[in-house]
């Protein structure tokens, strides 16, 4: 299965493994970060990490949008805090590396980023579930860090040890 790094213009000096960008980072009001944040310049392309089918697209957080794609064996990946690419809609089939959106901004001095989450795909219903603390996500949420670790070495041309911390 071909896999592609989701944000070619990712600013690798900001590790997705460090607070506040990492999976499991503590947030306000007892909430826990349900994904990883990949900082990139505003408007940077967001790519599908592998082939799949769009299962949801819509509003996400603070004026940004999300696209969720069922990537088969990889599960469902939610690409959040983006502007959705024109022509992409529910049930669209996508190829690995296809542009699915563009990095957006939350404002308030928060750097532009792709917020990315992974779900096993073993449950049904909305991915956000405010009744399921601490992540406030559907019960099949997974830590996407291992998947990102697998892809980052290829993206950086073998320099993955530099971002492993």
UniProtKB/TrEMBL annotation:
Signal sequence segment: none
GO function terms (MF aspect): metal ion binding; metalloendopeptidase activity
Cofactor(s) it depends on: Zn(2+)
Native organism: Limnobacter thiooxidans
Classification lineage: Bacteria, Pseudomonadati, Pseudomonadota, Betaproteobacteria, Burkholderiales
Protein name per UniProt: M23ase beta-sheet core domain-containing protein
M23ase beta-sheet core domain residues: 32-120
InterPro entries (alphabetical): Cell_wall_metabolism_enzyme (IPR050570), Dup_hybrid_motif (IPR011055), M23ase_b-sheet_dom (IPR016047)
Record bears the keyword NADP: no
GO biological process, one term: proteolysis
Domain of life: Bacteria
UniProt keyword terms in alphabetical order: Hydrolase, Metal-binding, Metalloprotease, Protease, Zinc
């Amino acid at each position: 299965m071909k896999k592609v790094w989701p944000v070619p213009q990712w600013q690798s000096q900001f590790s997705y493994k460090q607070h506040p960008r990492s999976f499991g980072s503590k947030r306000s009001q007892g909430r826990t970060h349900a994904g990883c944040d990949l900082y990139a310049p505003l408007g940077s392309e967001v790519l599908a990490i592998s082939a799949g089918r769009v299962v949801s697209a819509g509003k996400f957080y603070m004026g940004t949008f999300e696209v969720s794609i069922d990537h088969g064996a990889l599960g469902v990946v939610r690409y959040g805090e983006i502007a959705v690419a024109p022509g992409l809609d529910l049930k669209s089939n996508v190829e690995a590396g296809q542009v699915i959106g563009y990095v957006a901004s939350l404002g308030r001095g928060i750097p532009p980023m792709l917020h990315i989450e992974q779900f096993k795909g073993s449950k049904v219903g909305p991915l956000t579930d405010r009744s399921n603390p601490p992540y406030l996500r559907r019960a099949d949420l997974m830590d996407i860090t291992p998947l990102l670790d697998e892809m980052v070495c290829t993206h950086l041309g073998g320099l993955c040890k530099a971002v492993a911390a």
